[in-house]
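Troubleshooting: if your tokenizer reports a length mismatch, compare your output against this known-good record of 218 residues.
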Amino acid sequence: MLKIWGRTNSVNVKKALWCVEELGIKYERVDAGMQFGVTKTPEYLKMNPNSLVPTLEDDGFVLWESHTIVRYLSAKHSMGRLYPAELKARADAERWMDWAFTFQAAMRNVFWGLIRTPPEKRDAKAIEEARVKSNQLATDVLERSLAGRAYPVLDGSGMGQAVILDFFSGPGFFLVSRCGCLLEFRAMTAPGASRKSNRLNNCQNLEHFRLPIFVFCP
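Known-good structure output:
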């Protein structure tokens, strides 16, 4: 059986979990990372020398890096659907998968400042600068891509959509996480916020991964 190491509150682990849920694959998940430890053990480091999550094991084949895991599983189990067979469609999906890291970098100080840092140690200036930058990316890049269509990635069914959805739903299912954090904590409302919420409600398997403080909206 497919095995995934990683904690469910990790944005990167969420991507892999959302993918296997969408594919309907049976899998075993092992808590690892942060409060669960595991990632520093010799056994884990043999699988993933980065000491990070997620790590996937598929019949003896070990893989790490969340986006690579999503690509691998989608290509293996859903060629032509989650993994587009047509070159340009696949490139479009992968573009948004990789853009997630651009957005993640922009809003990193918001996430770490508001979620991982005690109030008395927060850098309000860094948080505000990151809030402005990430909101600008969400509006100028993501929102603009939605002009004339419901999803940034073609029909919204591919692997790129899964990653983006993850970022706006919690600290992660592609765009399911970071923007949601901003909307919730800073009461920010992007031009397409209501349309984003409607699209979110139509996504499958979201409740399994959503964190209570986030709102997902690609």
